[in-house]
Amino acid sequence: MKTKEFSFDLPENLIAQFPSDKRGESRLLVLDRSTGEFSDSHITDFPSFVEPGSVLVVNNSKVRKARVYAESETGARVEFLFLHELPDHTWTAMVTKSRKQRIGKHYVFSGPGGRQWQASIVGEHEDGKLVRFEQPIDETFFSECGHVPLPPYIKRSDAVSDESRYQTVYADRAGSVAAPTAGLHFTPEILEQIRNKGVEICPVTLHVGPGTFLPVRAEHLEDHLMHLEQYEIPVGTAEAVTKAKREGRSIVAVGTTSVRTMESAFDIGTATLPAGPGSTRLFILPPYRFKVVDQLLTNFHTPESTLLVLVSTFAGKEHITRAYTHAVRENYRFFSYGDAMFIR
Predict the structure, then answer these.
(1) Which of 12, 46, 68, 274 is least enclosed by beta carbons within 10 angstroms?
(2) Pairing state of beta strands 251-254 and 295-299?
(3) Rounded Cα distance, 298 and 302, in Å
(4) Which of 128, 311, 306, 116 is nearest to 217 (CA)?
(5) Which pLDDT belongs to residue 265?
(6) Cα separation of 131 and 207, whole Å?
(7) Can the peptide bond before residue 287 be classed as cis, meaning omega within 30 degrees of 0?
């Protein structure tokens, strides 16, 4: 299947550059994946669409302020996007002007009050460079030196407001370089309404990597290699999802990251969702058959992206094409800070 089949024209003014004025004010397009029928709604109506007894699975990963600027030994300003820490305390990172950032080169990261961190590039990695600090760093480094890693289609610098708005209200496990954006729409009040319907809300953790920003560059989808991402499934979530599947109750995934976590981990042989950590490169594309997820709350995705391919596989490509055409015509807001779609 060719990647260009998942392209579409999007006016630039529909790419949301800021979140809605208040959390929970986004529009919602509701799509029936069996019939292709869709209707315009609002995220505050989302609880009314979720069936009692369902299990709603959210990704509780927290966005790390992982974009950090350093000064090189030649005095140049270099941007690092730190991805994850390895067991030996080196970090994988994407670096600007990558070819100039060679092994052995040294950098100084400066924080408030004159505090400094020293680091050097010690190797190459499939995600970019390997960076070692003179002393191991922790979240203090990112909170003091880092910037919110807004995606490249948001054409502005990060602001203080992004520290809360580019984060779900239930985020509590730092590690992502991009937000699991479907969850950005939820307020505590909306979540409480969902619980009051007899819906169990369960977390998983998948730390979102840089691949979520990137278009598929291969001509054919089958040739695309996903970035490796780490996930963890708590015991309570594993038990709730397994029990619901056996009893025929719906599993509602909030975001494509929740989908990929559950679909990667689910054991068909035992019909169970195992608890514990794991990693995945799962690329969901036709004719993938979903094992766990019955319904999906998601945002509107970029052309030729793995996310658009996933939702097209879930709902049917023709249905998604028609729904996206409607969304463009009706001036829905697209991408990370945009509006939402509920596929049921």
Answers:
(1) 12
(2) parallel
(3) 12
(4) 306
(5) 98
(6) 19
(7) yes
Burial (0-12, 13-18, 19+ Cβ within 10 Å), 155: exposed
For tokens 């927290």, the residue is 62
- The separation between the first and the last C-alpha atoms of the chain, rounded to the nearest angstrom, is 25
Max CA pair span of the chain: 63
Give Cα separations from 245 to 33, 53, 180, 200, 344 (angstroms): 19, 11, 24, 13, 16
335 vs 340: CA distance, rounded Å: 9
Strands, DSSP E only, in the chain?
27-31, 38-42, 55-59, 61-63, 67-72, 77-85, 91-95, 106-110, 116-125, 128-133, 173-176, 200-206, 229-233, 251-254, 276-280, 295-299, 340-343
Please tell me the predicted confidence (pLDDT) of residue 244.
98
Q: Mean pLDDT across the stretch 90-113?
A: 94
Phi, psi of 332 (to 5 degrees): -65, 155
**3-state DSSP assignment of residue 162:** helix
Structure tokens at 37: 């029928």
Q: Is 322 helix (H, G, I), strand (E, B) or coil?
A: helix
Q: Give the H or E element holding residue 195.
A: helix 188-196
Please report the domains of the chain, with CATH numbers, ordered by start residue: 3-63+167-343 (3.40.1780.10), 67-145 (2.40.10.240)
Residue 243: phi and psi, rounded to 5, are -65, -45
- Average of per-residue pLDDT across 267-272: 96
Residues 339 and 301 sit within 8 Å (Cβ to Cβ): no
Residues 6+ apart with CB under 8 A from 266: 272, 273, 291, 292
> Do β-strands 173-176 and 77-85 pair in parallel, antiparallel, or remain unpaired?
unpaired
